[in-house]
Amino acid sequence: MKRDSLASSEVNLSEADGIRYLHLGTEWVQGSMRINAPFDIDLEYVQRMMAWLLFVPPENVAGRHAMQLGLGAAALTKFCYKKLRMTCTAVEINPRVADVCRAWMRLPPEDERLRVVIADAAREIRQAEWLGTVDALQVDLYDAQAAAPVLDSPDFYADCRHLLTDEGCMTVNLFGRTASFERSLESIASAFGPRAVWQFKPTREGNTVVLAQRTPSRPKRDVLQLRAEAIEARWDLPATKWLKVFKALEK
């Protein structure tokens, strides 16, 4: 599906077992919300999109800038805004997705810390106002069938790198059990450098989250362990489990 089609695709909701799901006119899940805990992150791979927290002292998270490319069900945007007290910018090509998230997914109204930009991410991230301003970039740009990323080239990832602050990180949702994964990984490594790239093992559903740092670093294992424990205690994310399935691409 081309990006022009995504801009006008139908948006649907479904519910089961206390969870509300968002779809883009197909059966494929594009995001979810636990109805009785709307600002928590429900899906495992979406939780892993927060792995950039391992590279930031927990006390220095509030006030930083998070940007989501692809709003989905707004889980990341809401978590960063409500739980982490960050400034948040979400870039979404389909205005219906933003409308549904406000009406049904508890996306808060925009204010000085929250902005939803209706735009094609490939063009928006080249705007000068964003360059060098993003501390946590979260990329989840799939077609309506959730079959492949719609933006996945070395040039796109180079543009993503230009958004980041010196200490900034990008996390990307990929499918680790498809033929396109290695190509995606090569594109990210080409833009960021192999030493800047980290990856998770695939989830049960096959989602593989890849992390890339603007400036490569190798925190010691005990530092990562302490950060993971703090993340788990403060924000109830399973960060200590992440360390068992998360590693640098190049040692």
TrEMBL record:
The keyword Repeat does not apply. InterPro entries: SAM-dependent_MTases_sf (IPR029063). Keywords: Polyamine biosynthesis. This is Spermidine synthase. GO terms for biological process: polyamine biosynthetic process. SUPFAM superfamilies: S-adenosyl-L-methionine-dependent methyltransferases (SSF53335). It comes from Ottowia beijingensis.
